[in-house]
Design goal:
With about 240 residues, this protein is mainly beta. About 10% of the residues lie in helices and about 70% in strands. It has one helix spanning about 1-20; strands at about 40-60, 65-85, 90-110, 115-140, 145-165, 170, 175-195, 195-215, 220-240. Strands 1-2-3-4-5-7-8-9 form an eight-stranded antiparallel beta barrel.
């Protein structure tokens, strides 16, 4: 009996390494890599800020006046981006906004045929500002994007020039005109949360030189021989990316 127990113990000790070698070994738990952020996709958002205009008028006698105004701008934007070659980003964006730009100043109405100059009250409003632009940017520090943009721009102008006619009648001829120009700008985006980014940018708009015919319901006709219009805009906004 003693020999039988000794033999069993020896068999157990001999077999133990064999059984242990057959046990499954668990692989260490790895940490999945963090997803790489990309600016590829489309977005929609809103922006607010300030605008400053640079305007200049001229008449047929060579008299000119330069003036400017400041105001508020607020609206929305939508677009798409594509990230390639590392951090480079190309995209397109459309913007539309309301502005409070308005300038009122003393002017003059000239009647060349009879050599008469009358004082007037000139007003220029820009109540709409829009653009369609392409942009090129570079992403850095994982979730920041610096970019430049350029493209077409539009603004709606409302002009009136109130004065008193030689017969004592007060008139206020006016005109409304949607002008097409161009825009360039620069800015920076910061993706501060999943699907959300904040943006800060400056844009310059140039609507060139135009002429306007102001009229009213009593037959008054006033020609603005030359009207130049430029606008500077500084805005901040937020975008939702999808």
């Amino acid at each position: 009996m003693r020999k039988l127990l000794s033999g069993a113990a020896l068999l157990a000790l001999t077999a133990a390494p064999v059984f242990a070698a057959d046990l499954a070994v668990k692989a260490p738990v790895g940490i999945p890599p963090a997803p790489v952020f990309s600016w590829t996709g489309c977005f929609i958002g809103a922006h607010v800020g300030g605008v400053v205009s640079e305007d200049r008028t001229a008449n047929t006698l060579g008299n000119s006046a330069s003036f400017s105004s400041t105001g508020f701008v607020g609206g929305g934007q939508a677009g798409c981006d594509y990230q390639f070659a590392g951090g480079w980003v190309v995209g397109a964006e459309g913007r539309a906004a309301w502005t409070s730009l308005q300038n009122t100043h003393a002017g003059s109405i000239i009647f060349p045929a009879i050599g008469v100059i009358l004082p007037s009250h000139f007003t220029l409003k820009n109540d709409f500002l829009a653009s369609a632009t392409a942009r090129l940017g570079y992403g850095f520090a994982d979730r920041w994007l610096v970019f430049v943009r350029g493209g077409a721009a539009w603004t709606n102008q409302k002009v009136d020039d109130a004065f008193i006619r030689l017969n004592g009648l007060a008139v206020d001829p006016s005109a409304s005109d949607t002008r097409t120009g161009w825009t360039v700008g620069t800015g920076v985006d910061w993706a501060f949360a999943p699907h959300w980014s904040a943006t800060f940018e400056y844009n310059y708009y140039d609507f060139g030189n135009d002429s306007l015919l102001l009229t009213d319901n009593v037959g008054t006709r006033v020609t603005i021989f030359s009207l130049k219009d430029k606008i500077h805009a500084v805005t901040t906004g937020v975008n939702y990316h999808f």
